[in-house]
Structures are given as C-alpha cells and as structure tokens.
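Extended Data, record SHSP domain-containing protein
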Amino acid sequence: MYRKHDPVDGMWAHALDLMAQAERMHQQFFRLGTGARAQANWEPPADVFVDGRDAVIVVALPGVSADRVEIASEPGALWVRAERELPPAARRGAIRQLEIPYGIFERRIPLPEGLWELGPQELSHGCLVLRLRRAG
C-alpha cells in the first residue's frame, strides 16, 4: 500500500505512470504492418441508433478527410477504415504531449438483425454519419 506523503512511493507511482504511458504510445505507433495493408492501431468510438426500418451509425473521426475513409460491408457488420495523419507541426519538432490517436484505424460495427442497405453518408463536424435502411 502506498503512503500518501512518502517520496519513494510517489516516485514509484510516477514511474509506473510513465511506463504505462510509454506502453500506450508503443502500441499506438510501432505496430508493424501485415501483408499489403498496414495493421490498424486504434478504433474510433461509434454510436448506432435504430428506429424501425432505419439505422444511423455515427463514427467519431475528427481530423480525417472524407476522401480517406473506406466503408465495406459483410453480413451483419460494416467496416470503417481510414488514417488520421499527424499534423505538420508534429513532424517539425519534438512532441511534448500526444493523447489523440493517429495512424491507421479500423472499426467493425455490428448491425442489428436483418439485411441492411447502406444509404447516404456524410462527414460533418468530425463525425461520419452512415444511414442504413432495412432491405425488403
């Protein structure tokens, strides 16, 4: 158990925090690609709303341009894949803090039961909005 005012315990806790941060950065930036496609190294959050015959999927993609987004389907799911590139400022100097995920991402979004047809899509205010309609 850590003692609140013990400097050794405080240093140990700080060292553990730094190790955890280094591991997160390692996982985010140093995954090796497999085959012709590089491996995704993060997943964006997504919401799914269903109302009768319609479904709306919202995927948070701030900083990703629409022309870089790929959408694919499989029975029972949609895949969203793209890349968020580091901003130019991050390539010129030392990075002092990095919390926003960058690099290739991929997200598999399970769909509700049934057959769905992908309709209009838009990238608005940093969110990809996919509209689906129940087939049949």
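Summary. The chain has two domains: 1-30, 37-134.
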